[in-house]
Amino acid sequence: MSFDVKNKTALVTGANRGIGRAIVEEALRRGAKKVYAAVRKLESAESLVSEFGDRVVPVQFDLEDPSTIQAAAKTASDVDLVVNNAGVLKTSGPIDDDSLDSIQFEMNVNVYGLIRTAKAFAPVLAANGGGALVQLNSVVSVKTFANVATYSASKAASYSITQALRDTLAEQGTQVVSVHPGPIATDMADHAGFTEGAAPPSSVANAIFDALTEDRFHAWPDPMAQQIGGAYQSFAQSVVEANMQEESPA
């Protein structure tokens, strides 16, 4: 299956800046009729509404607050595409003083938040014909960097859940894409010290919609990601994307 955003309705979490804003802009450029800008503070999406008018609809959304996710699923009952871009990052090594606090925070947002979002929106997507779900993971989901070890662990876990969602949601005709950016020029990357050679957020947005139209599970947007993705490709095709479900005993 493949997905074309033209004349469709999308929801993008963390839509107010960086990669999220670029995804909103690219969805509209490619012909989306409406995009829900899912943000923690509604006023943070005002500039998007000013630029694009009623094609952008702000909706409150906090990955730590299940009630906002459930409310957003009711508001965005016409959605065809959900892009879970929002996430958090702590610069914690595995034995730093704050490592346990960091990983608890990151797991709650980056992993539990993904599960909350998928549970809330899977029935909506099914009711609207299947559609697509996109999860922003990271190159650190397959290669840990020590100074962001807890973040890497959370993204490895979210990648694992994304793989499961691919298999589970296929039954209802929902396409799933796992996106693995390397350094991207955002506030988060700047905080983590990943600014050298950082690619623009638009590279992630383009990679997402190209993967959707080309029916690819993995998207590796930038030069570092493409290098890692190239090395990972054989395993991904032979194991991750292969149908390895055991047949039931005769």
Automatic annotation (TrEMBL):
InterPro entries: NAD(P)-bd_dom_sf, Sc_DH/Rdtase_CS, SDR_fam
Gene3D superfamilies, alphabetized: NAD(P)-binding Rossmann-like Domain
Pfam families xref list: adh_short
The organism's place on the tree of life at top rank: Bacteria
NCBIfam families xrefs: PRK08264.1-6
Recorded family membership: Belongs to the short-chain dehydrogenases/reductases (SDR) family.
Protein name, entry field: Oxidoreductase SA2266
Provenance organism: Novipirellula caenicola
